[in-house]
Amino acid sequence: MPVDLNNAQPLAWDSATLDRDTKEMLDNLQPNILRAHVREHLSVLFIRFNDSADGRRFLREVATTHMKSARRHLEEVRDFARSGRRGTPYVGIGVSKAGYRDLGHSVEELRLFGDRVFRDGMKRRVAEVNDPAVTEWEAAYQREIHVVLLIGDAEAAPVARLRDEILGRLPESARVLGEESGQGMRNPAGDGIEHFGYVDGRSQPLFLADEVEREPRKRWNPAFPLANVLVADPFAPSRDRHFGSYFVFRKLEQNVRAFKEIERDLADSLGLEGADRDRAGAMLVGRFKDGTPVTSKAKAGGGPVANDFTFDSDDGAKCPFSGHIRKTNPRFEDIRHVLMARRGQTYGERADQPWDDAPPETRPSAEVGLLFMAFNSSLENQFEFTQRDWANNADFLNPATGHDPVIGQGDRDIKVTFPKVWGKPEVSLPQGQVAQTVTMLGGEYFFMPSLAYLRAL
Ligand code: HEM
């Protein structure tokens, strides 16, 4: 039975009755797509080949020696839960449109990729999403990147070892154009956070039955069909069993100092005092620093980070329509196909504690940020739609609600208001939108092919 990507039931991957085609799908799918792979330590390598035979040989060798399948990854996670046995590092490969061409695929063949945004590449999409001009990107991203290689693990040493080993195999004809290092950050509760100090990575589309079953799901259904992230791999032997995913990579620098000043100034201008001051930042993000959704509670705190909520009973008096998580997932039933599987990681070292209340002057203003990464079945209808039609759109849902204060790009020329008291109609005087504190430094669109394709190169 061919794998049905639109099946609404989450995948019971461990079931004894799992059919052969689904097993083969999981045996040929890269890990980290259907379920996040641990990547506290992450090395991201951007490579350019200059000889197609060399490039093919390199990718085939990496795939056969170092890459595990999605099924192997899920088994490792299960075994770790049962016996504490550590899994193996994650190695992922994404190929850009230019990379496929360099590996010998013709322009006609590339049309088999249904996503025209992938076929364009990120450099040609700058105007669509209001990105900085390519000439302003970091040098490595201005070049023609063929492949992204991700190496991740819970510990630093295996990543360093594997990175050296893989680079040792790199043919003379290839070049490493750039490299990023990601490193996870956690708050005292142990939750993963990003540089502004907020819990991140909590809300995700879930595809696997064991993950879905652990979630409270009275209001928001976290289960999504595989079609949100998988498409048939056009160059693999079987279109029914061999799948891949479009992968967006963006290096997003965060001016933490400026964001903390904005939080402070907004709290001052709304007259928020004491613990209420945290609501200023929560209205920008949509969640308090500890992850509590501001649409559900006026103050932070109260147990595990919730995700079982919608904005249905909130006309913007609790969570403004511009709040980052409201912009990027308004939680309507008819927009569920837009949600991507986010797999980002923070980068940059800092001496201060991102989650505490230290004054803005002590915060970094550059060199730290998010390596934004996400899996899509359509870059056009998911990542780009989210960035362009929601985050950058000041008239999102209602006129003049403003840009996404975290990731919105483009002129912020309209004035906005904020609720002064949580849940009450009283709003602030119209004020200028908060300044942009996240800057895109470069990136690319890739396709993460099936292992069946990579092994056969
Ligand atoms: C959620 C921060 C970039 C899309 C979140 C959350 C935080 C956050 C703190 C809440 C945690 C959670 O609900 O999982 C940031 C920061 C960014 C950034 C600091 C840049 C430096 C982006 C980009 C996109 C995006 C570029 C897409 C265009 C989302 C989505 C969610 C989310 C879809 C989940 C919303 C939900 O389902 O409730 N982000 N983010 N983020 N972000 Fe971002």
From TrEMBL:
Q: Which residues form the DyP dimeric alpha+beta barrel domain?
A: 28-179
Asked if the record carries the keyword Calcium, the reply is no
**Pfam families found in the cross-reference section:** DyP_N (PF21105), Dyp_perox_C (PF20628)
Q: Which domain of life is it from?
A: Bacteria
The Gene Ontology terms for molecular function here are: peroxidase activity
What cofactors are annotated for this protein? heme b
Q: Which UniProt keywords apply?
A: Iron, Metal-binding, Oxidoreductase, Peroxidase
The segment(s) forming the Dyp-type peroxidase C-terminal domain are 285-395
The family note in this entry says: Belongs to the DyP-type peroxidase family.
Matches recorded under PANTHER family:
BLR4509 PROTEIN, DEFERROCHELATASE/PEROXIDASE
This protein is called Dyp-type peroxidase family
**Which species is listed as the source?**
Nonomuraea africana
